[in-house]
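Section 5.1 Outputs to date
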Amino acid sequence: MLRRFADAVAQPLLAVHRFAKTMRQPLLAVPGFALCLLAAALVAALPCAAQPQTQPPVPAGGQTPPAQKNRAGGYTIQTRVNLVVLPATVVDAKGHMVNDLAASDFKVYENSVLQNVQVFKHADIPVSMGIVIDDSGSMKEKRPAVNAAALAFVETSNPQDQVFIVNFNDTAYIDTPGDFASNMEDLRAALDKIDSKGGTALFDAVYTSLDHLRLGNRDKKVLLVVTDGVDNESRYTLDELLRYAQESNVMVYTIGLLGEEETESKLFAHLTHDDRKAKKDLELLAKDTGGQAYFPRSLDEVNSTCHEIAHDIRNQYTLAYYPTNKAFDGTFRAVKVEAFEHGTHRKLIVRTRPGYYAPKGDQPATPASGVSGQ
């Protein structure tokens, strides 16, 4: 009942979101209109919320079966309990990706308590993805190389991916038509909407992009963020952004084009105080969401960096479990994943998100992302 009520409230707000986007208006510039619609939606949704609803039966023990067959013949994880889903990248001591592990090679701990992994998958899972690119004044000479790298990044993607482009300076613009681009021409057109000027509202742009990713329905959600400077225009703070990013269950990869240029090809020899702060912010955003921060030494390296990120996304393991702590208390649960080399049991390096926020009170329990498997 509460979920239906929430959906009824959310739909007018999504309409505001799409209206602003088609007009290439700043997505954060319609709060008054949105509040009016929210008030109207609350009134309109009350009769709907009052109607009784029939829920599917829950098996003994309060657990929902982990998967049910869908129309396409695959299996989709259901959302009746707090399923925790962890995309994980595994590398050896030399940084080489390890792709031959079995479920028995992993151990997952939540708040130091060993968990029972009930879903294991290693495949190229389609993603809903946003590419968020700085378009402030300092990016003018860098945008052509960044655009080319972004296109190369998308060209290596799964055909079933959903992709949108955000260009931002003082404000953020979602420049792909519709909620997601339908073809490469849409993406090229969005990347070509260059108007490099103004400041850097990085936190607002990422926050808005996390919000837009809610419209996606793919099993994994990712943001790729490219910027060359410290945030100097946002309304949201870094702490607010980090909390929202962790609650959104989105992996964020960041590329920082930081530092003063020495030559045309060597960008980042001298870091200012602001550059060092920007580097720290980008590292935190990536680390807290299970992504990775990259700082290429030249524009020539941006393309290869994007290829590396694409390869990382396409070769992750997916682990999922129902936590032994079933309390819906809204607390942060620290998560640790260990992996061991098949045969030798040598410990490997695992990169995943460091934890998640449990649902709170009557908040519906949903997984970190959908997980499909055969």
